[in-house]
Structure formats: structure tokens, C-alpha cells
Fold this protein.
Amino acid sequence: MTITTPEATSTATSDRRVVAFSPIPSPRELLAELPLTDRRAEVVARDREEIAAIIAGRDDRMIVVVGPCSVHDPEAALDYARRLAPLAAEYADTLKIVMRVYFEKPRTTVGWKGLINDPGMDETYDVERGLRTARRLLLDVIDLGLPVGCEFLEPTSPQYIADTVAWGAIGARTTESQVHRQLASGLSMPIGFKNGTDGNVQVAIDGAQAAAAPHVFFGVDDAGRGAVVQTSGNEDCHIILRGGTPGPNYDAASVTAAVAALANAGQSPKVMVDCSHANSGKDHERQAVVAVEVANEFAARRAAGEPVRLSGVMLESFIEPGNQPVPSDADGRAALVYGKSVTDKCMGWDASVDVLQALARAAR
Ligand SMILES: O=C[C@H](O)[C@H](O)COP(=O)(O)O
Ligand SMILES: C=C(OP(=O)(O)O)C(=O)O
């Protein structure tokens, strides 16, 4: 790899704060090395269609996006996928289970930005290894029969992985960003826009509306060249209620308000509820309470013959409950607890099984 230093490229006014440029393989090269294959492509396309049908109200199952807050150990993530796959098959008549396989973490200020950015959690930022590890894991998860859900954060990273992804999210910190709305307009899978960290739901509705429109913007092509990107717009967008600074927003009044605002904007009057983040007060044990509450509302409305307003839920779940700090040195990395989040607190596996069962019961 040739690292270009600013001395080689800078002028008196450019790159004064850039330390280095480190080239990485083009998307085309990585996809050739780790191909999706026709068989997996069929599976991804079918999963995307099913998820889009639920969002549009043509399929009355519930989407459940469940998995770790972030992937830091691909082995543990695959172990989790092996546990989840049989449940996804068992509940397939009522739930469309999608595994959260999140590689890009938006930070409130600074912190570890995820496996693609720093796969060793050692500040070596081996992005090439991160991309390769991420893509390998995505293919392995698909091979277990699970659809994959990712948050898209870096505007060019989707070129390396998006062909494998059945559902995507734009996070609370970027939902108002034009760059991310443009990106979503060209992505091939359904996309959920989170409400803002301040609790503003309208920005998510605006995001979904902006992403449904065609856009022209700067990007890179699959050879990694700078390119003008023209998109046709993504009609399969929806909003995700994740709570905010003022508190949770999964209660009936908040959902009613969001559904009314969606109808006003001409969008599908259905919401996904993120049971974690500000809806749980970042308390992983509260996620189960939130999930059961929203699922009961789902069941009650359906039983009363009223329109169902919930298209899905999101859960942060891993093998062990809680979280642990991102290690700061090699000793810390060696002492990491297997299957435990290094970002937000997650429900442990046993609690997750109970919640999935409760959701399936409610949806039935
Ligand atoms: O979901 C993960 C976190 O909530 C998000 O990345 C923000 O994390 P931070 O506030 O710890 O930076
Ligand atoms: C960062 C996340 O959520 P939010 O954008 O809602 O904070 C996440 O789901 O990992």
C-alpha cells in the first residue's frame, strides 16, 4: 500500500490538516474477491421484497431487527447468527427477523467507530482488513439463512457491502444530513430513518421523503473513481422511533402523532420502534418492557380490526447482557468478555429468546 503524505500532494493551502492518504482496493476488486454469487443474490432480493411489503402494509408480519449494537468480534457475531437462524425460521410466519450486523458506529463526540474503521480496536485503522472482514461475515450470515441489517454511515462504504444487505438504517445523528438522504435514494434495500437525538420525528419523515426522490451528487463508482451519481429514488423508506432527549416516544400518543405526521406527508402510516437507545434509557433490561408494550398494542389493534401502525421493532441483543469498555491496550483486548457489546448495552441471549417468543405470540 502506498501511503501518500501531505508533503507529496499539498499546496500552500490544501491538505494542511491531512496527515496521509492510504489507498484501499476498489469496491469492484473486493466484490470479485468475495462475490455475492447468484444464489445469495436471490436470497437478498427476496428478503428485501418481503421487508418492503411489510413496510408498505402488503404483508402483516412484524420486522424484527435484532443483534449486537456493533460487531467487534466476527466469531461471536457468527455464533450469535447461528443461534438466531433457527428462531428466524421458527417464527417466519409472524416475524421477519433481520440480524443487526452493524460495522459503522456514529459517535456523539469521539470513540471507536466500528469494525470497518478500526477492526483491531488498536487504533491502527486497517480499513482494508475491516472491509474484508465485514464482507466475509455478511456472506456467512446470509449463508445461515438470515437477512442482514446495517447502518450506513460513510457515504462510500455501501459500494463494498450493500449488495449483501436486506435492510438499512440512517442513524439519529445523520438523519438530517443531505449526504445520507442522497445515499439512501440510491440504495437498493428498504431504509429506516431514525428520529433525531433531540426527539424530532419530522426530520425522519423528511429524510424518507427526500430519499424517495431522485438525486444527483458526488460519489465514487465501483472502480473507486470520483463520479457523479444519479439515483432514481428509494420508495421503500420508513421511520424509526428511537426516543430522544425529552424521553421515549414508543407510547401510544407518540405513535399516534407520528402516524398522523406520516399520513400528512403521504407516507405509509407505519412506524418501526427501536426498543433501545432513548426508548430504553440505554438500559438493556428495559428493552424487553418496551418490546412487549408495543407488541401488545400491535395485537390489540389487530384483534379490534383497526389498522396496525407498527411495521417492526429493533432490539440490541448479543450473547452476554450489558456492555464492556472498548479496550485501550493489548491486555484489555485479551481480557474482553466473549459475546459482550463494546458499545451500547445489549440484552443477553436468554432474554432475547423470551422477547422474540413474546413478539411472535403477539403477532400471531
Ligand atoms: O448505538 C450506539 C450509540 O448509541 C451511538 O453510536 C452513540 O454512541 P456514543 O454516544 O457512545 O458515542
Ligand atoms: C447508533 C444507533 O442508533 P441511533 O442512531 O438511534 O443513536 C444504532 O442503532 O446503532
In short: The CA atoms of residues 51 and 152 lie 18 Å apart. The chain has a mean pLDDT of 96. The pocket of phosphoenolpyruvate (ligand 2) is lined by residues 69, 102, 106, 151, 171-173, 194, 242, 274, 277 (CB under 6 Å). The radius of gyration is 20 Å.
